[in-house]
Design a protein that fits this description.
There is one protein chain. 18% of the residues lie in helices and 34% in strands. By secondary structure, it is of the alpha+beta class. The strands form 8 sheets. It has an 8-stranded mixed sheet with strand order 29-30-32-31-33-34-35-36, sandwiched between helices. Strands 5, 6, 7, 8 and 9 form a 5-stranded antiparallel sheet that branches. The protein has a 4-stranded antiparallel sheet with strand order 1-2-3-4, with no helix packed on it. Strand 10 (157-160) and strand 11 (168-175) form a beta hairpin. The longest helix has 18 residues, at 651-668. The protein is globular. 45% of the residues are buried.
Length: 680
């Protein structure tokens, strides 16, 4: 949850950013979300939020003048999403937050209430509801089934909507301690268990027939997923074969992070699945058809030798491959059908190729599309596109209070690292900066490190730019999206070549007149937090201030922790020793690039931020750095987020975190009060 109440330390700006947009405008929940097209293309459903409350709505696209059906929810309910089970029934997921003693929090209360202890901590409870299109016949899935309702805080994990069986869908729920798979009937709510999980099961995938195909188990910390494939025995029994073990994604934008294996959709032949994968020997991630019964790749579907392609568009009824999606800088959609591609190219031209056009849904006959456009100066708008008439209709903005005239543009920055490798980065410049004014720069390397940044609507970058700061986000070597060779170039380069790429990007901005070397800060989360601390210790004169959130500070201690948590023979420990270094062979090298062991070299003030519930990088990593800086007599602040994890932030914690970030930047960098012109 993003919080609407921040303050700024410099100049008494309070809730307003210096460009007159408010924090609340950026951080409020979307006014329009989870918009979905019915299979026949006539109806549009979604979630809307306004001053009257939160609603699930249904609109008739064939009769725009007809009154929309609005289903209101009370002030304690969060509507997560809505989806069509078939043309007549909707499934909606809702969450309420309460305590073990029965207290229920309102949405506003969660934003502003200060939780005093475990007894008052908000506990989310999620349930599914079946609703007729006209708003009648509302019923809760598993209502009255004590064996499930008492054992599950979350009964909203849809596995498949079974498009070829419109009266059923699949749900994952815990029964007797493991996550099992259930088939639920839409019209009656009746259910049957069709798959039994194991201890550690966290997900399921169904095949073309609606039967369990893949089971996903996680390690104790949830940092590694192991996939198992269903094996049908001649005697009629089913067993499960271990297939792949991969690192869990750090964040939800899955097509921004390369992967060795990720299921996407059932294939058209029983026993097969479309997967985003990088088989052994392949230089990039691509789309492949995979046989989960034999653990073999049947054939490549879409592979590019120069870039990672990590998402596919699949017909949900025929399971025909329609195309792929991947990021260059913006989202690129490729259809196999040339007519569909011509329509997509025309839409891109209409938007001046400045936004990501997400083809989110289509009617069964393909004549009506639902699109979502987003970009740095477009926070998100839904469009309905009539293919036959090439007519597009603006259905509504997700963030109507955000004016494009106040949002900051992003430019692509290409530069060469010191060894000649070409690097791409993105520079968000405060909108309306006067000619000749060089705003202070926040260098913001991403986490992962095998992830990437793209041109998109980034609330944090926009907030910083709205407060007068330029934001530079480099895709240093080791980032995903550019193929295995580029990712491998970052292996064992923590504090070395990866760090040099970030430094060289900053040097490029200085050389091209876009940054002032005396007015810049480095700020990052996770690996980006490590990079910020490495900059503070290895290049102490480079930045005026340093912000490190949720990042490692001692590489040897970090590797020891992973070994103790997951085991010395675990896939997770093997991954990190391959990526960072082996503490047995590389001890001196790792120590020489561990910021907590180099605190005496720090010159810039440092802000440390960490969540107590972080299961990816333990909070002790920040504590080590704070202790080392304090003992060395350096300037350090430590913001501890008592109810938050690695990337998830509870409401009060996020407010505390962001107030600290803005205040810290304002204390150490200089923003010209005459920075803006807004002549356009």
């Amino acid at each position: 949850m993003w919080l609407p109440l921040w303050s700024s330390a410099q100049g008494g700006y309070g809730n307003a950013l210096r460009n007159s947009t408010t924090f609340h405008d950026y951080l409020r929940a979307p006014a329009l979300s989870s918009v979905e097209l019915s299979p026949n293309g006539r109806w549009l459903a979604g979630v809307k939020l306004n001053h009257k409350g939160i609603f699930v709505f249904v609109s008739d696209l064939d009769n725009p003048q007809a009154q929309a059906v609005d289903l209101p929810f009370d002030e304690s309910t969060f509507v997560n999403w809505v989806e069509w089970a078939n043309d007549d029934w909707l499934i909606t997921s809702v969450t309420v937050y309460g305590t073990f003693d029965g207290q229920i929090y309102t949405r506003e209360g969660l934003n502003y209430y200060t939780f005093s202890g475990f007894e008052t901590m908000p506990i989310p409870v999620t349930r599914l509801f079946l609703v007729r299109r006209d708003g009648s016949g509302v019923q809760r899935v598993f209502e009255g089934v004590k064996s499930l309702e008492k054992r599950n805080l979350n009964l909203g994990r849809i596995v498949s909507f079974l498009p070829n069986d419109p009266d059923h869908f699949l749900v994952a729920a815990t029964l007797r301690g493991d996550l099992d798979l259930f088939r639920v009937q839409v019209s009656t709510g009746a259910h049957e268990r069709i798959g039994v999980g194991k201890n550690g099961t966290i997900g399921w995938y169904a095949d073309i027939n609606g039967e369990p195909a893949l089971r996903v188990d996680a390690n104790r910390r949830g940092t590694r997923y192991t996939y198992y494939g269903r094996q049908d025995r001649p005697n009629g029994r089913t067993s499960w074969k271990r297939l792949k073990s991969v690192r869990a994604d750090e964040r939800a934008e899955t097509i921004k992070q390369s992967t060795e294996f990720r299921p996407l959709s059932p294939g058209a032949v029983t026993g097969t699945y479309y997967v985003a994968a990088r088989p052994a020997g392949d230089p990039t991630t691509g789309i492949h058809l995979y046989d989960f019964t034999t653990d073999t790749y049947v054939r490549p579907i879409r592979v590019d030798p120069d870039r990672d392609i990590e998402d596919a568009l699949i017909n949900p009824e025929s399971y025909e491959y329609l195309g792929s999606r991947y990021y260059e800088d913006l989202l690129t959609t490729e259809f196999t059908d040339q007519t569909m591609q011509a329509h997509m190219d025309g839409l891109s031209t209409m938007f001046d190729a400045e936004v990501n056009i997400d083809w989110t849904d289509s009617s069964r006959d393909g004549k009506r599309w639902l699109l979502y456009a987003s970009g740095p100066q477009e926070p998100g708008t839904y469009y309905v596109y009539d293919v036959e008439n090439t007519h597009i209709r603006n259905y509504g903005s997700a963030f109507p209070n955000l004016s494009p005239y106040r949002l900051s543009p992003v430019e692509i920055v290409k530069y060469q690292a010191r060894d000649g490798l070409e690097i791409t980065g993105y520079l968000t410049m405060p909108k309306g900066v006067r000619d000749g004014v060089i705003p202070p720069v926040v260098v913001m390397p991403h986490g992962g490190p095998e992830m990437r940044d793209t041109i998109t609507f980034d609330p944090l970058a926009q907030i910083l730019a709205g407060n007068g700061y330029a934001v530079f986000q480099p895709n240093f070597r080791g980032s995903s999206g550019y193929g295995l060779e580029f990712a491998d170039a970052g292996r064992r380069q923590w504090g070395k070549a990866m760090q040099h790429d970030i430094e060289d990007g900053f040097a490029h901005l200085i050389a091209t007149g876009k940054a002032d070397p005396s007015n810049a800060c480095i700020f990052g989360y996770s690996y980006g937090g490590y990079a910020a601390l490495a900059a503070a210790t290895l290049t102490p004169d480079l930045y005026k201030c340093v912000i490190a959130a949720s990042g490692p500070s001692d590489l040897l201690e970090m590797l020891d922790w992973v070994r103790d948590e997951d085991g010395s023979r675990s896939d997770e420990y093997e991954y990190w020793t391959r990526h960072i270094g082996d503490p047995r062979r590389d001890r001196d090298e790792l120590a020489a690039h561990s910021p907590a062991r180099l605190a005496q070299y720090v010159k810039a003030p440092v802000l440390m931020i960490h969540g107590h519930e972080d299961a990816v990088v333990p909070i002790e990593q920040s504590s080590l750095m704070v202790e080392a800086l304090t003992e060395a007599g350096k300037s350090v602040e430590f913001v501890e987020l008592h109810r938050s994890g690695h990337s998830h932030r509870m409401a009060g914690d996020q407010r505390k975190e962001m107030e600290a970030i803005i205040g810290f930047l304002d204390s150490h960098l200089t923003v010209d009060p005459q920075i803006w012109s807004f002549s356009d």
